[in-house]
Structures are given as structure tokens and as C-alpha cells.
Amino acid sequence: MSDYIASSLAQYNELYKRSVDSPEAFWGSFAREEFVWRTSWDNVLSYDLHKPHIEWFTGGKLNITENCIDRHLAEKAHETAILFEPNNPDEEHLAISYKELSEHVNRTANMLKSIGVNKGDRVCIYMPMIPELAYAVLACARIGAIHSVVFAGFSAQSLADRINDASCAFVLTADGGYRGSKITALKDIVDEALQKCDCVTRVVVNRRTGSKIAMHDGLDVWWHEAIEGQSTVCAPEVMDAEDVLFILYTSGSTGKPKGMVHTCGGYMVYANYTFRSVFQYQPGDVYWCTADIGWITGHSYIVYGPLSAGATTLMFEGIPSYPNADRFWQVVEKHSVNIFYTAPTAIRSLALCDINLVNKCDLTSLKTLGTVGEPINEEAWEWYNDHIGKNNCPIVDTWWQTETGGIMISPLSGITETIPTFATLPLPGIQPVLMDEAGNEIAELEAEGRLCIGHPWPGMARTIYGDHQRFKDTYYSSFPGKYFTGDGAKRDSNGNYRITGRVDDIVIVSGHNLGTAEIENAINQHPLVSESAVVGYPHAIKGNAICAFVNLTVPSKDAEKLTNEIMNLVATIVGPIAKPERIQVCSALPKTRSGKIMRRILRKIAAGERSDFGDISTLLNPECVADIVAQTATM
Ligand code: WTA
């Protein structure tokens, strides 16, 4: 047990106070005591949030894979590191021990070296949820290459944009990916993306589905051929604490996604600390996070957090509804899962299914439940608590972001109080503040405002790859000297936080961040569309859904055809997850006198409001509001 992982409420309070009084002593001691460093640091922290400039453990040297793998080999060589549950329940699962993980990662690392990957090179990973994806991520970290994992649901265009932005010379992919009864043609998508990328010199293709694919001479190599004969020994590259570990893209308010940069030392410390604090993982526990490694949740809480803690982490290839809507509960029973971490959207959709699907499974192994990615409504929280936790498992509602690297505000399982719909209290080390619109910090405890973080923490993103100015503009300009999250929050009289949702142009659909500008850019490419405005509106299952208001150059003769074409355009350019739920053709979009679209009004219309839009007299074209309402009513 670590002195820095709270195991009682009193200790939480004491640690919190200590972390605020002397953050450097707090993080410095934790980092020194809990990890293998090749060289200790000169400074725990140096920063200036106005620039912003952030460094943690400057001068420290380490390799994160030594902390995730090698150091466990003495005592845990034969314990399971990764439990792999395939998409098809009839295919045998795999229990990969720490020793086997070490061998796989080292062979993969040597394979990467053999195709010319060097320290600092960017490697794009576009793979299904198979163990080789975890090996690939860790292999990059082993040799100091920077991984950029792109979720395997993104389109060829999105993949190409991400490959080009980081000028990746290498792509790791598979012949296909299983998703329920379907196969995603990953290699075909890579082939299409590479038509737009000049930087890629090698593509390594893992064989998973056996799908027929094209292999291009001089560019494509089969994984099983490239890894053949590679040694199971690979010395870890000694990295600077502030060397880049990975880039992960997240949506922004302009069309272009932001490549968030995380560094080796701080990220490692924070992923480990938060995993252990929040989930209260105990040796022998089986832990399952249902996210995809293509998102930050998978990076921090399938790979780096659990493995650095020597845990058993379950990796699931499939989807909750395949072959039936009881798959999650079947897997919990099959592997006696103790800690289960999923998204509110999944909970809401599974709550609609026959309750016998839950009740026939033995869920008694469960101790802790978690949620992440979007606000959870009270009804879904209660259902999760009653039917999955049987009123016996704390629910940790974890608030955090791609940018924060790890969980920031959350109950600590069994230690601090849980309150439905509240992420509750900050972890020790995290100093949230609420700001009013004028930019002042709100002193009262009970308040609502924009959520900022007032002091650095080790897991915070250091920059946006290739665009530090945008990093500053997005996160450090609205409230100088503080990190602005883009979320709104309420705080109760006990200091508990409830996240109310985004206050910018990002919409969270089924837990996925979508930039409205990126979707508009895609829609505007349709020849009949003159302009469009995309907004989110509340949706019973997905949390939010997308409604696109489009203005046409000439009236469309076939509304259904137009809708399908726009949907397909968004699916191809951004990805299927970004498809609008509704497309509303309208004769004009409401604009301010300076020509800006008034999305506030469109948000209300999409949410079903038909009057009460506030003062619209300042609009350039106030009459269009009534028209849009009338057109929407006839949908
Ligand atoms: C939202 C996912 C309410 C929030 C880890 C944040 C949440 C965005 C919660 C980040 C939560 C995440 N309650 N909202 N527990 N967790 N969010 O980068 O709006 O994919 O800013 O990181 O998800 O999404 P991202």
C-alpha cells in the first residue's frame, strides 16, 4: 500500500490538504517511492501557465514500459496482465501473463526497429481491439517512438488528416476488425487514406479476419512475417521525463482535430496514481474497462494505469450487443470481473433490454462500478446501482478529459461519498475552480460556472502537436493563469462537483467528442448545400445527438436522397460516429449582424422548443426563426 493512495476518508482529507499546501513535495514523494527511474529529477515542477510552459520531473530519466512490465517480472511473471475476450464468444479467450506480455512487447519493439522505426518517430496505430494493439502501443514506448492511436471507427479522410498532421512514417493496422457480426475493412481504409499521405514509408498488417486485401510491394508488410525470428529481449530506451510518449487526437472547435501531447514521466505517474486511487485496485482483482484503446480512456485505464500497477486488465474486442445484449454481463460472470468501468450511453441502452438478461448472470464478483465520458443521468445511475451493483458497489463517476491524461474529479471507491449525477470531489493534487463569465473566480462554495484547474498536475497535456499557439488559445487564454476545461459545472455546499456539459462547440455523442465545425465542413461539401449549422440536443440514449440545419443553393427534389447523401458524406469524411440524427433543411439560418450563426437559437429548436427564444430583434434576419420552427414542426 502506498501512503499516497487514500484508504480512508480521513486520509483522503489529509492527502488533499497536503497536496494543496505543497504540491511538489506530494508528487515528488509519490513519484520517487512508486516507480523505477533510471535517474532522478532535478526539479519536480517548473511552470508558467501564461505561456503556457509545463514540465514535470525535469531531468528525470525512465522508460514507462519498465514500470508497466519489467518491474513486475520478479513476483508476477505468471500472473495475468491482459485477459483478452474476443468478439466471438466461441473463440477462446487469452490470458497473457506478465512474462508473455514482456516477450510480445519486446518482439514487437524489435520488429519496429527492423522496419526502421527510431526514437522520436511517429507511428500511427489503426487497429482493432486485439492484444497486438496493446503490444504495439507498449512497443513504441519501449523504443521511444511516439504512438498516435487512431480509433478504428474513423474514416479514411480522418485517418489521413491525423497521419499527415504528425507526419507519421509508419502505420500499424490489420486486415480487418471484428465488430459484432460485421467486419471493418481497416486495411482498405488505410489504403484509401494513404492516397493522401506522402509521409508513410511502411505499413505493417496484422492478420485478424483473413479478409482479402491488397498488399503493396515495398510498402506493406505482414506482421507475422516481420516479427518472425525477432528476439524477446529489447533493452528499454532511456527517456527524458518530458520526452513525448504519445499524441492522441481530440475534436476541436475549428474543423481540425487537436493532437494532444502527453509526456513520459508525468503521464506515467498520473495514470498510475489515479487508477489506484479511484478504483482501489487490490492484488488479484480482475479489472475491466470497456473503452477502446483508440480513446484516452483506453490509453490510461486499459494499458498504462492498470499495467503500471501490476493489475489484470481485461481487453474486449466486441460490442455490448453481440451476440446478445447480455454480452457485458456474460463476460463479467465468465472472468469474475471485480471492477467494471463503462460509459453512460452503454448503461442507458442496456437498461432498455429485458432485465432477465442481467438477472440470469452471476455478477457477485463485482465490487466497484465506474462511468466515464459524459454526464450520467439519475435514472441510468440508479439502474446501474440497483441491477448491476445490487446496491452493493460504489459507482465512481469519473470526470476527466483527453487533455488531463487521467481522472480529475471522482469518488474514490468505498472511500468518499457517491452522489448520483455528481463526479463529487477532486482527487488529492487537483485544484478545480469555478469562474464566472467575467473571468473572476467564484469564491462561494455553492455556485455554478466554468470549470478551470488552478494548479498544474503531472498528467496534463503539454501542447498541441505542432501548434502551441492553438494550445494556448484554446486552454489558457479564456482565464489567464488557469487551465480551462471547456466544461460547465455546479458545486454544492460540500464542495461536490456536478458537470453540466460543454460550454463550447463540442458535442458529446455517446461519449465521443465531436466538433460541430468538423461536421459542418463535411456537410458543406455537398453540392446542394450553401451553408450549415450543427448543434447538439438531448437524446435519451446517446446523451446528445446531432441536428444539422442546412440551407440549400437550390431546393432539393428528393429530400430522402439528400438526407442520405449528407449522412454518407459525414460518415466518409469524419466517420460513422459523427452522423447527424436529424437533418433539417431551412430557408435561412439565424445570423447576428456581423454574420455569425446564432447556434443558441438552433440548439433550442433542436431540443424541441417552439417559442421563447429570448430577444431575437438584434438578429440580421429575425423572421427566419419562425420559418425554421414551422419547417421543423413538419419533420
Ligand atoms: C465529458 C474522456 C460528465 C466532459 C475521458 C469532458 C464527462 C469530455 C465525464 C472529455 C463525466 C467526461 N461527467 N462529463 N464523468 N467524463 N465528460 O476527451 O464534457 O473524450 O470535457 O475524455 O467528456 O472527453 P474526452
Question: If you had to describe this structure to a student in words, what would you say it looks like?
Answer:
- The protein is α/β, with parallel strands linked by helices and 635 residues long.
- The chain has two domains: 338 residues, Rossmann fold (3-Layer(aba) Sandwich); 124 residues, GMP Synthetase, Chain A, domain 3 (2-Layer Sandwich), CATH 3.30.300.30.
- Helix content is 31%, strand content 24%.
- The protein has 20 helices and 30 strands.
- An eight-stranded mixed beta sheet has the order 12-11-8-6-7-14-15-23, sandwiched between helices.
- Helix 7 crosses helix 8.
- It binds 5'-O-[(S)-ethoxy(hydroxy)phosphoryl]adenosine.
- The site of 5'-O-[(S)-ethoxy(hydroxy)phosphoryl]adenosine (WTA) has 22 residues, from helix 11, strand 20, strand 24 and strand 25.
List the helices and strands and how they pair.
Elements: H1 9-21, H2 23-34, E1 43-48, E2 53-58, E3 61-62, H3 64-68, H4 73-76, E4 80-85, E5 94-97, H5 98-114, E6 122-126, H6 131-143, E7 146-149, H7 156-165, E8 170-174, E9 177-179, E10 182-184, H8 186-194, E11 202-206, E12 220-222, H9 223-227, E13 239-240, E14 244-250, E15 258-263, H10 264-279, E16 286-289, H11 296-308, E17 312-316, H12 327-335, E18 339-342, H13 344-351, H14 356-359, E19 368-372, H15 378-388, E20 395-398, E21 432-435, E22 447-453, E23 463-464, H16 468-476, E24 483-491, E25 497-502, E26 506-509, E27 512-515, H17 516-523, E28 529-539, E29 543-552, H18 559-573, E30 582-585, H19 599-606, H20 623-633
Parallel strand pairs: 4-17, 6-7, 6-8, 7-14, 8-11, 11-12, 16-17, 16-18, 18-19, 19-20, 29-30
Antiparallel strand pairs: 1-2, 3-13, 4-5, 9-10, 14-15, 15-23, 21-22, 22-24, 24-25, 26-27, 28-29
Helix pairs in contact: 1-2, 5-6, 7-8, 10-11, 13-15
The protein binds 5'-O-[(S)-ethoxy(hydroxy)phosphoryl]adenosine (WTA).
